[in-house]
Amino acid sequence: MHVNAPVTAQLRRITATDNPAIAGVIRRVSAEFGLTADKGYTVADPNLDELYALYSQPGHAYWVVEQDGQVVGGGGVAPLSCSEPDICELQKMYFLPVVRGQGLAKKLALQALDHARAQGFTRCYLETTAFLTEAIRLYEHLGFEHIDQPLGCTGHVDCEVRMLKTL
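Structure tokens predicted for GNAT family N-acetyltransferase (167 residues):
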């Protein structure tokens, strides 16, 4: 019996042709966890279908995870709007169930933090919600610390977990 080797996922920068696929991933994962647009989660972002253009701006970067020719996850970093210029935000980290638990979120986050350092950021902020316990554990493991007050003006009003890391 022939056993196929597992296909390894690759991490790469987003391209314009990835826009529909990563928007679909974000919508699927958001629906899975009940992260609805009416509560101000990422699915409400007006630029969700144009992530390549958004993350092509200076100081921004977004990576997608591709497996078997399909985009199955992604995440990025960008300057935190309405805040001090040295603070960036880890953004739009979404992964389909097929690639969860493989260390790809950690790998992507580390790459994003390295990029942020290279761009001159000294702190990285993120927002999430309390029931995404695996994500919170990852962020804590990466050195993010819980903070009480929101930073910037992200518009994600239901993201009650706020974290900050010195880069």
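The mean pLDDT is 90.
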